[in-house]
Amino acid sequence: MKNVTIHVTDYTGIEHRLDGLEGWRAMEVIRDYGLPIKAECGGACACATCHVYVAPEWLDKLAPPNADEEMMLDDAMAVEANSRLSCQIILGPEHEGLKLTLAPNP
User: Fold this and answer.
1) Which residue from 1, 41, 46, 72 has the highest number of Cβ atoms inside 10 Å of its Cβ?
2) Band (1; pLDDT cuts 50, 70, 90)
């Protein structure tokens, strides 16, 4: 497996450079680095506590959300056009440099 670097901006506006592995979920990388993401369902697409915003230049480079993800996002806070669940972003070499921002999550 190869490393995939993603950039995640936290709630205070600080951008973190995180190294994950191909095949990992973006949520797993964010969680394992200790950033404040709840990810309560552990990646089962059964909640919206791993909600992130995808940088506009990356939107077309990700697979579109499936029906389950869209349903979960309906229950998320502060949903925007670039909202995604980070558990549904499976990292591959095409995601090198992916930019995400943590969405509000009480």
Assistant:
1) 72
2) confident
- Identify the CATH number of the domain defined by range 6-102: 3.10.20.30
Model confidence at 64: pLDDT above 70? yes
pLDDT higher than threshold 80 for residue 105: no
| pLDDT higher than threshold 70 for residue 44 | yes
Residue 23 CA to residue 77 CA, distance in Å, equals 27
The residue ranges of every structural domain in the chain are 6-102
- 3 state DSSP class of 10: coil
- What six digits make up the tokens of 88? 């549904």
* DSSP category for residue 90: B
